[in-house]
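Handover notes (outgoing to incoming on-call)

Open items:
1. tRNA (guanine-N(7)-)-methyltransferase: sequence verified, structure written out, both below. Nothing else pending on this one.
2. Nothing else urgent.
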Amino acid sequence: MTKTENEKKRLRDAAESGVGPITEEGEMPQKKFYRSRAHCNPLSHNNTFDYPIHPAEMDWGTHYPAIENPKPTVLDIGCGFGGLTIALATLLPKHLILGLEIRAKVTEYVRLRILAHRKENPGKYENASVLRSNTMKLMPHFFEKGSLEKIFFCFPDPHFKKKNHPRRIISDRLLSEYAYFLKPGQGKLYCITDVEDLHNWHVKHCRAHPLFRELSKDEMDKDSCVKAMYSETEEGKKVERAGTNKYYAVFERIESGTEDAKKITGENFFSQGQFGIE
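tRNA (guanine-N(7)-)-methyltransferase structure tokens:
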């Protein structure tokens, strides 16, 4: 996508979301003008997004103009208002951070927020960007096998009703996709929520997947990204103000040659549970 096409897309998204020229590029946006529903049904958004046919056709240069041959390696899926995306940009300066958000108005807020940080801090935050997309459907269009090092899922929609469980962002089917994109033996999947039932769901499905290993508490305590995930998201700060609990877990993408990976069979890889059927 060329710079002109990218600008047209931005204006189209802004018009769709009802966001006018509230904030000039380079100025810090005010959140009150970019409020949106807390969550969005990912199964009802089919033709809203632009995406390349193949990852090789994606021009990441429009997202990271100061970086040569850029490709994101850290994803903040459902990034909300960008608190963690911004924090990771300074915590992981050698990585390219990409926030993924399905809501147009919120995506525009994060985009403007990143541009404002770049203007206020020359040479910094060039490794952060945001993309409006439907993660549950479009990740294969943007990312290649083994290209990602970290994927974060912070306070996702719980979808409490059983009939809506297939909409949950962590499921057996989607875990197989995430395993495909994460680097074997190095990639990590981070998840945090304030809903204990959803946390138990995350742990149950990640533990059951043959390509993920759960990190111990000691391992998580040594990971600075866990601390950022716990404290830097807007939703996490709201939970702290309410005085309620946060539940989190981290899983590592194992090497395909390990004993656990050898346990994979056609029966357990293509299980019914992968497709939201319990």
